[in-house]
Write a structure and sequence with these properties.
CATH topology of the largest domain: Fructose-1,6-Bisphosphatase, Chain A, domain 1
Largest sheet: 8 strands, mixed
Bound molecules: D-MYO-inositol-1-phosphate, calcium ion
Number of helices: 7
CATH class of the largest domain: Alpha Beta
Number of strands: 13
Structural class: alpha+beta
Strand order of the largest sheet: 2-1-3-4-5-6-7-8
Distance between the termini: 46 Å
Length: 263
């Protein structure tokens, strides 16, 4: 697959930051056993990765605006283009030595997600997509799962963490989903959840209260693989706190149905 200049810029930024994160992840394993634990080290690794990504992107597209998890909003002279960046999605996994985390870089143009890169440097899995040009995993074209019988579905989800609101409502939804599908999985990286739905590993995925950097790249990757991605009400507010529901047309419809079942 020949990549466009735009995707090359995004991929190079993700690979460079990924090399740093992979090195730092090796270090986390040593720090696990220390009294203080790896907390401060991980937040420094996170910030370093973000600096690398923003630096690389700015070299190629100096005028674009940026929304990044650690440094927030930086308005460029070009406000119609915005990078949306999560330098380390799956921080809790990283902190615990669980090798499931990703770098997520999305590009929004005039309010529409047009390109996305999600990279897991430990599994060496690079998911890329550009609007209208398909989604790929390490150069292999991705397609959404085709299953339509809910008893065969594997559904990904993310749950509200400690001190977050909505736990009881979420448990009601989980109850409705587990009584209808084959299995539910919870990875701890929303970007990876969407990438895996694009790859057909998951039939569908839902989560409330995601931040824009968790899902920006994943939205375009999943859509380019034929996945329907909406917010939790079937609308388009995924980047504005509306949550995410994803799956092929049948799965998406059924998931929305399960989520509205009385618990
Ligand atoms: C988190 C992960 C997790 C999701 C949380 C996110 P972080 O991002 O994506 O899967 O459940 O809502 O905040 O903090 O690891 O970048
Ligand atoms: Ca995140
Ligand atoms: Ca993060």
């Amino acid at each position: 697959m020949a990549r466009t200049a735009l995707l090359n810029v995004m991929v190079n930024a993700a690979l460079k930051a990924g090399r740093g994160l992979a090195r730092d992840f090796g270090e986390v394993e040593n720090l696990q056993v220390s009294v203080k634990g790896p907390g401060d080290f991980v937040s420094a690794a996170d910030k370093r990765a973000e600096e690398v990504i923003i630096g690389e992107l700015a070299k190629a597209r100096p005028t674009y605006s940026v929304l990044a998890e650690e440094s927030g909003t930086t308005e460029g002279s070009d406000t119609s283009h915005r990078w949306i960046i999560d330098p380390l999605d799956g921080t809790t996994n990283f902190l615990h030595g669980i090798p499931l985390f990703a770098i997520s870089i999305g590009l929004e143009r005039e309010g529409v997600m047009v390109a996305g890169v999600i990279y897991n440097p430990i599994m060496n899995e690079l998911f890329v997509a550009e609007r209208g040009a398909g989604a790929f995993l390490n150069d292999r074209r991705l397609r959404a799962a085709r299953r339509s019988d809910p008893t065969t579905f594997v559904i990904g989800t993310g749950m509200p963490q400690l001190h977050r609101p909505g736990q009881d409502e979420y448990l009601g939804e989980l109850r409705a989903v587990i009584r209808n599908v084959a299995a539910v999985r919870r990875l701890g990286s929303a970007a990876t959840d969407l990438a895996w739905t694009a790859a057909g590993r998951y039939d569908g995925y839902w989560q409330h209260m995601v931040s824009p950097w968790d899902v920006a790249a994943g939205i375009v990757i999943a859509r380019e693989a034929g996945v329907i991605v909406t917010d939790a009400s079937g609308g388009d507010t995924m980047l504005d706190g509306g949550g995410v529901v994803a799956g092929n047309e049948t799965v998406h419809r059924q998931l929305l149905g399960f989520l509205s079942e009385p618990s």
